[in-house]
Amino acid sequence: VKSFAAPPSPVKVGSSGKLNGKNYRIAGHDLVEVAEVNLKFERHEYQLQDDDNNPAVLVCGLRPEAKDWVLFTALDPAVPLTPRQAGTLRLGDVVNIDGFVAPVVEIFLSTACRAGDSTLPQADNLATYGFIARTNQTLLMTHWNESGIGFHRGKLQTVKEVRSAFSQSPRN
Fold this sequence. Notes:
Layout: E1 2-4, E2 16-19, E3 22-36, E4 39-50, E5 55-60, E6 69-75, H1 83-87, E7 94-97, E8 100-114, E9 126-135, E10 138-145, E11 148-157, H2 159-166
Parallel strand pairs: 1-4
Antiparallel strand pairs: 2-3, 3-4, 3-8, 4-5, 5-6, 6-11, 7-8, 8-9, 9-10, 10-11
């Protein structure tokens, strides 16, 4: 099994900035271990809140040693998959979630540990199964466990966009 550690956190909890035309504040930070067949790696996931307190997730490094960023916003499908249905999917299977039709390109188990700089309650060792479906620049990330299932639509962000948005000092 190949293992990769995450680099130091590139942005700080408390920072505020604008992505995709919305103002966001970084409210929390998880260091997430992702396990796939023959691969384990860590990535940073940041819990964001917009001006209306709507949540979003900013992920740094979907793959090991990648410097990509993806902004995920919550998706509430009219007819969601159940955790059991999601668990039967295989790589290459095509999903249709509220008209987003794409093949499954990753299947994983993730374990989140709240980083010390987070302002949110602890989430240590929160394990979920998941998959990512993708078409060009749009992604669908789904996580589930015995408690339920969640869906997020993602949009790729450049390093420059994220650095520009969150380069300011965190507010106390």
